[in-house]
């Protein structure tokens, strides 16, 4: 199967570089490009790619607005990788809320980019554990700071919502929150990959979420995982016998 990719960035040289990396792979092709957020939405709706590489800082509709528009379109099954830096904390938070499927640092090497596209296309979360922890920790810190001026209920509310998941789903969630792939979660919990995918889909439905990244954020908001990446003290352990 050929993975069809759309590249979005307002700098032509960056788009060219990304295109060259993608098309160097036998099983990938670039089927469209865009230089603004508005163009990105138009191109994606026209060519319906599997994966979009989306910059955030662009004129005429930024990448965050484009992600939100694509997620809101029920006819699309496109997955979105947001290209960002750790200096773009506010964009990271907004992209999480918009429904991006994952993040990739702009200085990632070609092998990391290709692996990220394959991973997202396969339905796994994008980021390696270290990056996942850093990005979500930034989200949690900024979200708490934003809520400091009013009565904060997001944490308790998230915990109440997460009470709806089963013990086994929570075991899966704890590992997804560290950036583990479906295969890695399956191996750790002695499950099949199909079962892990089923649990993830179930949790997304129960929590009213659209992406695995949002699921990770829910785990942090609920206190199941600490920003440093450690499991919270009151979080359940392995439940292999359940």
UniProtKB/TrEMBL annotation:
Every Response regulatory domain range: 4-121
InterPro entries registered for this protein in UniProt: CheY-like_superfamily, NreC/VraR/RcsB-like_REC, Sig_transdc_resp-reg_C-effctor, Sig_transdc_resp-reg_receiver, Tscrpt_reg_LuxR_C, WalR-like
Pfam family name, one: Response_reg
Molecular function via GO: DNA binding
SUPFAM superfamilies reported in the protein's UniProt record: C-terminal effector domain of the bipartite response regulators, CheY-like
Keywords: DNA-binding, Phosphoprotein, Transcription, Transcription regulation
GO biological process: phosphorelay signal transduction system; regulation of DNA-templated transcription
Top-level lineage group: Bacteria
PROSITE patterns: HTH_LUXR_1, HTH_LUXR_2, RESPONSE_REGULATORY
Residue numbers carrying 4-aspartylphosphate: 55
Occurrences of domain HTH luxR-type (ranges): 158-223
Protein name: DNA-binding response regulator
